[in-house]
Amino acid sequence: MAAVSLRLGDLVWGKLGRYPPWPGKIVNPPKDLKKPRGKKCFFVKFFGTEDHAWIKVEQLKPYHAHKEEMIKINKGKRFQQAVDAVEEFLRRAKGKDQTSSHTSADDKSRRNSSEERSRPNSGDEKRKLSLSEGKVKKNVGEGKKRVSSGSAERGSKPPLKRAQEQSPRKRGRPPKDEKDLTIPESSTVKGMMAGPMAAFKWQPTASEPVKDADPHFHHFLLSQTEKETGSTSIQAADSTAVNGSITPTDKKIGFLGLGLMGSGIVSNLLKMGHTVTVWNRTAEKCDLFIQEGARLGRTPAEVVSTCDITFACVSDPKAAKDLVLGPSGVLQGIRPGKCYVDMSTVDADTVTELAQVIVSRGGRFLEAPVSGNQQLSNDGMLVILAAGDRGLYEDCSSCFQAMGKTSFFLGEVGNAAKMMLIVNMVQGSFMATIAEGLTLAQVTGQSQQTLLDILNQGQLASIFLDQKCQNILQGNFKPDFYLKYIQKDLRLAIALGDAVNHPTPMAAAANEVYKRAKALDQSDNDMSAVYRAYIH
């Protein structure tokens, strides 16, 4: 296969791990983003998204030469919008070229006309012209000397700083005020259109597991890494940007439980083109999703029996067991090959028991609790912690991409439950500390708003901190994460510590504050309502 020559400004098709080929353009990376070691790669900005990534040369194809091929295999709405963005970019670039061409022609015509009128007719005039040219050359020479002198003056600066100042121009980078999309298509792309590309193949294919993907892959927000512990993360960028390139699985998806988290998850599965059958204990909650294209299941058993992969997201260990083991439950619909994914936050013993009964019927099991809140669920930006059947984890890829920004595979069943409880233990304890700080500020005559402003300027600054403090300052405790559920998670995390004889005094103290808040009828409010435990 002939070598493919690429350069800055080329339009390409780039392949990101398991994502489908996407149109982009080779651009300069930010100064602080180092190029990955290993095989040659380019930094690509993708059209129709805010994504950027380092892509290996073998994962790039010229845009024009493969346009028809890519359009045939990708039919998504966002993909078409990305292609439209490329074509609009090309039209703008062509319009600029034509304008520049007309301007140059007019300028040349005016110069020729002027030269005709002022063409020298004598030797003296020719000599004057020669002298004039000599002055120009001399001035150029003086200009060079001035530049050199300026460089000498800059010599007092450290070599590193001088190199930083000069490097953008040496590498041919555009000035800072130039936008990436203003670079017209280079002649290299046009020249490659006729090149032999028949042997060009994507690696890895969409069906390959994550661990086989490019080990040098580096992306602002989109990355995949495999740890020595066997933990794998598939991280995605802005949900809108990344989800736009999802190819939904052709497997039939079931979903049980349409609470704060489940509702957002199902909505995103439907938006990304998945075929979904829903069930909820309160049937009316299904109506909205039926209108969006979901199918209705009458019982959990029916959903499992008619779907390939069934997800469930319920409130606590008891609800998770009842859903599987109860009348017309999940277990009654399980037969060899059926898949069950429990996204509930429960203890390791519960999830291990459920896994055993599902597998005993020939089913496949994966635990996948999620970290986040209602807003993150709605935005498709959850963090998914999975453990159990690795093959099933891979089969859930497009679903996880639709509902979350990141998913981690943590090994054997029970690991995800433990990790999720630890995460929520930290979050719940932090929330209690925030409430404690705000009330202490109030009783000591300090401004709570000023405290928040100070925290937001320091190392603790985060969306979570700001949102929860705003809830408290505004007295708005509409649930984004139920207080009763964070207290349940603290209780389970403390039990987890007890089981291995590990002290959890901070979590235990926080748990007592949440228990007091529950006694004040705050269970169904947001976790930030723990503040009220301090003021009553």
Automatic annotation (TrEMBL):
A Gene Ontology molecular function term for this protein is: DNA binding
Q: What is this protein called?
A: Cytokine-like nuclear factor N-PAC
GO CC, any one term? nucleus
Q: Where in the cell is it found?
A: Chromosome; Nucleus
Domain PWWP intervals: 8-66
SUBUNIT field: Homotetramere. Interacts with MAPK14. Interacts with KDM1B at nucleosomes; this interaction stimulates H3K4me1 and H3K4me2 demethylation. Binds to mononucleosomes. Interacts with GATA4; the interaction is required for a synergistic activation of GATA4 target genes transcription.
In the UniProt record, the gene name given for this protein reads GLYR1
Q: Which PROSITE patterns match?
A: PWWP (PS50812)
Instruction: Extract the signal peptide range.
Output: none
Keywords, sorted A to Z:
Chromosome, Nucleus
Q: Biased-composition ranges for Basic and acidic residues?
A: 91-145, 162-182
Lineage top rank: taxon: Eukaryota
Predominantly, its location class is nucleus
- Gene3D superfamilies hit by this protein: 2.30.30.140, N-(1-d-carboxylethyl)-l-norvaline Dehydrogenase, domain 2 (1.10.1040.10), NAD(P)-binding Rossmann-like Domain (3.40.50.720)
Q: Does the keyword Nucleus apply?
A: yes
Biological process per Gene Ontology, one example term:
transcription elongation-coupled chromatin remodeling
Q: Where is this region: Disordered?
A: 91-189
